[in-house]
Structure formats: C-alpha cells, structure tokens
Amino acid sequence: MNKHERVQEKVGEIMGGKVLDLPEIRIFHEGKEQGRLEGRAEGEEERKQLEIENDSLRKELEQQKKQIPV
User: Fold this and answer.
1) Is the pLDDT of residue 26 over 60?
2) Residue 45: what pLDDT?
3) Where does 1-70 show beta strands of DSSP type E?
4) CB atoms inside a 10 Å sphere around CB 70
5) What pLDDT does residue 60 have?
C-alpha cells in the first residue's frame, strides 16, 4: 500500500478520468508560456528595428539612383 501511495503522489491521482494538476507540470507549462511571450516581444522589437533599417536603406538606394546619370 505504501508503494501505491507514493506512485499516486508522483503521478497524480486519477479521478473521474482527470489527472490532478501537479506542481512540476504546472511550473513547466507556465515557464513554456512565459518563454513564448518573451520570444514574441523580442521578435516584435527585432522586426521594428529591421523595418527602420529597411527604410533607411531604401532612402539611401533612392539617393544613389538619383546620382547615376541616365
């Protein structure tokens, strides 16, 4: 009986087809979601920087095109 109790504490009790939320699993999922949110924020920041760089390069290209005689 003691071994069975330990297994249920480790795996989580199954009641009515549901597994109880374990702290380790909950922490894992919370960390995973936090990582996704941080990744999105960093991606948006990087995208904005690239848009600024692209705009400046387009302007520079237009200026160089104007300098070339046709």
Assistant:
1) yes
2) 84
3) 14-15, 18-19
4) 3
5) 94
